[in-house]
């Protein structure tokens, strides 16, 4: 995915220069060469903040890909993970900052694949409610980055209490096609572009089940699950035609087809550039959505919520589709009625890609704790899953599902230094982050009140600058 | 205590009350804020705790002995503020939600006890995680008075009410403002007029006599007299101060404050008033304009100022999330190691989900504590009950050992192995 996307990014940056000419191509002759519009018109402007080369020693390390190192060391410099292992075996420069991690744990930063920070920010008033464009079953034309308020105080809580270093913000699930998601670095910015994870692929939020039929049942449909599927298929049929039209144009030139923002997004999915994150709870419906992906030749990268993933864990593993799940949410709607505490470990044990997600500005502060509960439930059910292995639910698998695992999601040399130092075992309720680095920059330090971000909204309010 | 047991599956919950039971050898937590007793013993008989102590505790002849070495023995968790048993499925699913009555002309008179369904899934799910009692509150419908709450047990039987009409719940914060017509002034006027009418035994005159029925006013009379507790839902610091001022006109109000997100800012006032609070421990975002100062240190700071605090979920998951109350309490202990935060001790955190909520509904010494004479609600845990990896392994309610089976465990067992078998999954029971 990385190579594909980087290729696109390079291609589009050059081609963006011609974008302004698009409006003038209507009269181009049949032999005009193809022109391309930018596929990245709101590019990331994220720039890592400076850090100092730092060595953490004597800590327990979960490398994020299943490995555990006792009494280990992590060395970060130039924004990257430089070395992971034992300090004695590392070639280290003189005089680097060293943190004694005795009794502490080091992990990759947590990545939440399902957040509404910024598009449903605090305070949660109607004026801030920007996550669902509930006006049409297909709003694939909206990009949720254009809803994100960077001053949502929730971002800082996710960093300081949750050790969350990256997150995907998704449109809501009112629509069959909710729009594009965006992946962010959890670093405050003045606008969303300052926060965008560089060159992360876009996601498309899709939804099945109760929500679309509830929202549109009284507005001309879909009013049933069968119509959810029918309307979704109709959109893919349109997208296929659009894709063919543009493929032909891009190969041979001629008159540029009319652009359609909705179909641009769907075409991106068919071309493998945009990743599908499908809100779906029930096993029967997830099975149908996997079949739909076969019908139209795309891939479901992840099911979001996937409350009944445990019933079809084999099918999900076979499809290579991730399941982003809660540890123990249940019964809050009919389609979550069959939730079980072992969902995450059962998906993992079947060889699938299991992810602990939040979909919640409070839950995002405790994804390590939610994982701990799920892990314990799995062990009580007889599964043998190590602590280090379960961390794949928090960083590596989330990164894979967002198409950024080549750059983050594990403690491996060369990767972004997105790192959390915990003041104890992160699966214990008594543990909190001690320090959090993003790209090697120390952005949270429990011992230093200056390293605790305060959003504009909180300045001058009661409790400003307080611990949260 | 004779009980009708629910469903065949629950019949394995054979009453053990016929003879004494002694649970021995574990780390025993009394629940009153005192430190755990190593190698502790609790003896229960006929639904009550008859003896508690260290290894020297006398065990009656003929007692069934349950050895629990390496385990933790505690009173059952008390859900401090919940709607367990009122809702099978959230989200307004018809027939599955009894928590409010917004089409009813009644408000304060609504007695939540009639709405409790002990066979609702959240009851079993809570029980299986060591929650043995629950304070249950009605949800305000059209009026600031939500109605009369109760205390229930979570046992597998059809006799759930431990204490009916334990308190009245009134909304005097942002929600009350909205219900009363748009301002706090309206909410307080509505409240004081109703209490005056109840006190004086008259219907209040005014623009809309239909605000109150005689039944509502009759229900408020014991509140005015201080004979029934008044739970007041407020969050903003000034709302808390104003709520405390209500006792100037109604001096006998026996108040408990619920929510109290900005309580730390007026902790001394709350402590001086001697009013206990039920608060959410992890609220730390300015999610509304009545909790701009929310911090996880709220409870620790109030406790330090001498406020009596219980821990609960209040705004979300009230219908089914009580099993995570212990996780929430554990997080308060975690704060002790974060500079600048104010946490609470383990002993205090555990009391905040057992004996403190019991006291807030007037049931101190009766539930939420392992003391002689208390109801025999006992849980044996695999380990520290505030820790995420721990589970309830044995649960007694009123001395009756309970089934820990739930819909969830049945589904787990059905799908533990999903490879195709001789018959479809529907045949695996």
> Biggest sheet of chain A, open or closed, and with what strands and sense?
8 strands, mixed
CATH topology of chain A: TIM Barrel
Second rung of CATH, namely the architecture of chain A: Alpha-Beta Barrel
Q: Can you give the helix content of chain B as a percent range?
A: 10-25%
Give start-end ranges of low-pLDDT stretches of chain B: 1-5, 7-17
Strand elements of chain B, count: 16
- What overall form of chain B do the CA principal axes indicate? globular
Biggest chain contact? A-B, 59 and 55 residues
Strand content of chain A: 15-25%
CATH class of the domain at 77-362 in chain B, named: Alpha Beta
Oligomeric state of shown chains: heterodimer
Protein name (chain A): Imidazolonepropionase-like amidohydrolase
Keywords (chain A): Hydrolase, Signal
Signal peptide (chain A): 1-18
Domain Amidohydrolase-related (chain A): 370-440
Summary tags:
heterodimer, A: 468 residues, alpha/beta, TIM Barrel, eight-stranded mixed beta sheet, 12 helices, 20% strand, disordered N terminus, B: 429 residues, 11 helices, 16 strands
Describe the structure.
Chain B: InterPro entries: Amidohydro_3, Metal-dep_hydrolase_composite, Metal_Hydrolase, Metallo-dep_Hydrolase. Chain B: One of its GO terms (molecular function) is hydrolase activity, acting on carbon-nitrogen (but not peptide) bonds. Chain B: Keywords: Hydrolase, Signal. Chain B: Residues 1-18 form the signal peptide. The complex is a heterodimer of chains A (468) and B (429). With 468 residues, chain A is an alpha/beta fold. Helix content of chain A is 26%, strand content 20%. With 429 residues, chain B is of the alpha/beta class. Chain B has a domain at 77-362: TIM Barrel, CATH 3.20.20.140. In chain B, the strands form 2 sheets. In chain B, strands 1, 2, 3, 4, 5, 14, 15 and 16 form an 8-stranded mixed sheet that branches. The longest helix of chain B has 17 residues, at 184-200. Chain B is globular and about 65 Å long. The model of chain B is unreliable at 1-5 and 7-17 (pLDDT under 50). The chains are: A alpha/beta (468), B alpha/beta (429). At the A-B interface, helix 10 of A face helix 1, helix 8 and helix 11 of B.
């Amino acid at each position: 995915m990385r190579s594909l996307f980087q290729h696109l990014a390079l291609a589009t940056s050059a081609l963006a220069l011609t974008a302004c000419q698009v409006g003038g191509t209507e009269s181009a002759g049949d032999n005009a060469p193809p022109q391309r519009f930018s596929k990245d018109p709101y590019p990331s402007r994220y720039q890592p903040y400076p850090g100092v080369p730092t060595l953490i020693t004597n800590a327990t390390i979960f490398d994020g890909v299943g490995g555990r190192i006792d009494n280990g060391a992590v060395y970060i410099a130039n924004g990257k993970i430089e070395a992971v292992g034992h300090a004695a075996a590392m070639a280290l420069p003189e005089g680097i900052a060293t943190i004694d991690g005795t009794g502490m744990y080091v992990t990759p930063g947590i990545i939440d694949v399902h957040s509404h920070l910024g598009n449903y920010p605090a305070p949660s008033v109607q004026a801030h409610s920007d996550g669902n464009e509930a006006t049409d079953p297909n709003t694939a034309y909206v990009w949720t980055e254009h809803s994100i308020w960077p001053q949502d105080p929730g971002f800082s809580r996710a960093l300081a209490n949750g050790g969350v270093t990256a997150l995907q913000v998704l449109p809501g699930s009112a629509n069959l096609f909710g729009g594009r998601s965006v992946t962010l670095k959890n670093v405050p910015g003045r606008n969303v572009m300052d926060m965008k994870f560089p060159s992360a692929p876009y996601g498309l939020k899709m939804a099945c089940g109760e929500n679309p039929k509830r929202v549109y049942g009284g507005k001309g449909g879909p009013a049933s699950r069968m119509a959810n599927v029918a309307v979704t298929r109709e959109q893919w049929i349109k997208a296929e035609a659009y894709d063919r039209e543009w493929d032909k144009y891009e190969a041979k030139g001629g008159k540029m087809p009319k652009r359609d923002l909705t179909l641009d997004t769907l075409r991106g999915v068919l071309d493998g550039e945009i990743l599908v994150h499908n809100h779906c709870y029930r096993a029967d419906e997830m099975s149908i959505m996997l079949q739909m992906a076969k019908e139209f030749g795309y891939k479901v990268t992840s099911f979001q919520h996937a409350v009944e993933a445990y019933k079809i864990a084999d099918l999900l593993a076979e499809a290579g589709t991730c399941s982003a799940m809660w540890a123990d949410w249940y019964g809050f709607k009919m389609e979550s009625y069959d939730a079980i505490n072992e969902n995450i470990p059962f998906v993992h044990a079947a060889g699938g890609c299991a992810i602990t997600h939040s979909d919640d500005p409070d839950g995002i502060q405790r994804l390590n704790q939610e994982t701990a509960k799920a892990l314990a439930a799995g062990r009580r059910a007889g599964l043998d899953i190590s602590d280090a292995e379960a961390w794949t639910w928090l960083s590596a698998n989330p990164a894979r599902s967002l198409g950024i695992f080549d750059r983050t999601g594990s403690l491996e040399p060369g990767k972004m230094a997105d790192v959390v130092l915990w003041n104890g075992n992160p699966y214990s309720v008594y543990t909190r982050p001690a320090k959090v680095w993003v790209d090697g920059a120390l952005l949270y330090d429990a011992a230093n009140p200056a390293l605790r971000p305060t959003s504009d909204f909180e300045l001058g309010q009661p409790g400003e600058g307080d611990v949260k | 205590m004779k009980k009708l047991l629910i469903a065949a599956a629950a019949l394995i919950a054979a009453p053990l009350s016929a003879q004494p039971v002694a649970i021995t050898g574990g780390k025993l937590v009394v629940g009153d804020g005192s430190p755990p007793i190593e190698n502790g013993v609790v003896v229960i008989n006929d639904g009550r705790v008859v003896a508690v102590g260290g290894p020297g505790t006398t065990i009656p002849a003929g007692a069934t002995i349950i050895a629990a070495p390496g385990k933790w023995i505690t009173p059952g968790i008390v859900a401090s503020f919940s709607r367990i048993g009122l809702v099978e499925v959230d989200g307004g699913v018809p027939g599955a939600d009894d928590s409010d009555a917004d089409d009813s002309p009644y408000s304060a008179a609504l007695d939540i006890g009639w709405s409790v369904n002990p066979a609702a899934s959240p009851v079993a799910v809570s029980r299986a995680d060591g929650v043995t009692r629950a304070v249950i509150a009605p949800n305000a419908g059209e009026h600031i008075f939500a109605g009369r709450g109760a205390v229930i047990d979570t046992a597998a039987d059809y006799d759930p009410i431990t204490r009916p009409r334990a308190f009245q719940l009134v909304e005097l914060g942002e929600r009350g403002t909205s219900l009363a017509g748009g301002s706090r002034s309206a909410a307080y006027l509505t409240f004081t007029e109703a209490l005056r009418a109840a006190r004086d035994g008259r219907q209040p005159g005014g623009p809309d006599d239909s605000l109150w029925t005689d039944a509502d006013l009759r229900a408020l009379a014991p509140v005015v007299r201080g004979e029934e507790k008044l739970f007041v839902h407020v969050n903003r610091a000034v709302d808390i101060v104003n709520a405390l001022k209500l006792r100037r006109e109604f001096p006998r109000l026996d108040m408990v404050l619920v929510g109290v997100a900005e309580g730390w800012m007026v902790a001394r006032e709350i402590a001086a008033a001697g009013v206990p609070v039920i608060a959410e421990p992890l609220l730390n975002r300015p999610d509304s304009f009545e909790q701009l100062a929310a911090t996880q240190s709220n409870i620790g700071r109030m406790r330090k100022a001498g406020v009596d605090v219980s821990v609960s979920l209040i705004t979300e998951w009230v219908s089914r999330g009580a099993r995570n109350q212990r996780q929430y309490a554990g997080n308060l202990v975690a704060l002790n190691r974060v500079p600048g935060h104010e946490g609470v001790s383990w002993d205090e955190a555990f009391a905040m989900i057992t004996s403190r909520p019991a006291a807030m509904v007037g049931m101190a010494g009766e539930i939420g504590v392992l003391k002689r004479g208390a109801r025999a609600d006992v849980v044996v845990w695999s380990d520290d009950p505030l820790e995420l990896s721990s589970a309830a392994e044995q649960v007694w309610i009123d001395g009756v050992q309970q089934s820990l089976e739930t819909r969830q465990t049945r589904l787990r067992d059905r799908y533990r192995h999903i490879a195709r078998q001789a018959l479809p999954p529907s045949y695996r029971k």
